[in-house]
Amino acid sequence: MPKKTLLVRRRSNSQSAGNHMTIAVQVTHLPPRLDHVTVCRSLWFRSRSPSVSDGRSESLGKMSGKDRIEVFPSRMAQTIMKARLKGAQTGRNLLKKKSDALTMRFRQILKKIIETKMLMGEVMREAAFSLAEAKFTAGDFSTTVIQNVNKSQVKVRAKKDNVAGVTLPVFEHYQEGGDSYELTGLARGGEQLAKLKRNYAKAVELLVELASLQTSFVTLDEAIKITNRRVNAIEHVIIPKIERTLSYIITELDEREREEFYRLKKIQEKKKIIKDKAEKERAKWANANEGGSEPVNLLAEDRDEDLLFD
């Protein structure tokens, strides 16, 4: 008798709603029997049914009070929710305008950064050629430069620029003190050294400007991300939640008004029945007394009975 083996493999598919199970039955020299098909069907339904039920329970859980604000439905709550909705819409519009202003400035800074970097490459190339020319004509002047260094002549100060409530740092360079290298290259190579100083001064100016632009670029990038995140949160979370809460309050108030109308209608019907019954009793007593009716005592206590109805 050949040996039969039953292999069960479980495979999960992320794109489908649940887990699917594949059954492989290996039978040596024998066709598949009916019990194999029954096992396959039962396992397939077992693997399918829990995922569907779990999805339904999750959807029912999401449709509960998590998608709205927990408030007691009243006219005051409706007024408060309307004010909150208006405030959220105003805040979303203001944040969108802020994001547009920051994005416009961001693109301007990006354009300036590209232009400054291209200009920086040309200036540094000219400065490198000027340095080679100065060394060729004036010789090695590095020792003279090192000896004359006492304090920095080019300094940087920082200012602040405000763009739609975002503070951007702005760097500016300025020169302090006289030139301590005026007599350098007096014997030979003075023109090349002057050209060298001009080129490197321009390079320092561009470096300071580039540092200011890149710092503003990073700051604006973070500010735009935060602003867009707030806009998305208000637009896709807060405003729909307030709108669902308003819809819930309006539905409850309408239901309460319908209940009140039905209650008043039932009370009127009950009063009408009691009134008809009293008129019948009065007519009955009048017929019994043959027209002799007692006068109504206006000073007597006349109390209405409580009306109860199902």
Automatic annotation (TrEMBL):
Gene3D superfamilies: 1.10.287.3240. It is a peripheral membrane protein. One of its GO terms (molecular function) is proton-transporting ATPase activity, rotational mechanism. GO terms for cellular component: clathrin-coated vesicle membrane; proton-transporting V-type ATPase complex. Residues 284-310 are annotated as: Disordered. Subunit of the V1 complex of vacuolar(H+)-ATPase (V-ATPase), a multisubunit enzyme composed of a peripheral complex (V1) that hydrolyzes ATP and a membrane integral complex (V0) that translocates protons. V-ATPase is responsible for acidifying and maintaining the pH of intracellular compartments and in some cell types, is targeted to the plasma membrane, where it is responsible for acidifying the extracellular environment. May play a role in cilium biogenesis through regulation of the transport and the localization of proteins to the cilium. InterPro entries: V_ATPase_D. The keyword Transcription regulation does not apply. Transmembrane segments: none annotated. The keyword Endoplasmic reticulum does not apply. It holds the Pfam family ATP-synt_D. This is V-type proton ATPase subunit D. V-ATPase is a heteromultimeric enzyme made up of two complexes: the ATP-hydrolytic V1 complex and the proton translocation V0 complex. The V1 complex consists of three catalytic AB heterodimers that form a heterohexamer, three peripheral stalks each consisting of EG heterodimers, one central rotor including subunits D and F, and the regulatory subunits C and H. The proton translocation complex V0 consists of the proton transport subunit a, a ring of proteolipid subunits c9c'', rotary subunit d, subunits e and f, and the accessory subunits ATP6AP1/Ac45 and ATP6AP2/PRR. Interacts with SNX10. It is found in: Cytoplasmic vesicle, Clathrin-coated vesicle membrane. Its main location: membrane. Belongs to the V-ATPase D subunit family. Keywords: Hydrogen ion transport, Ion transport, Transport.
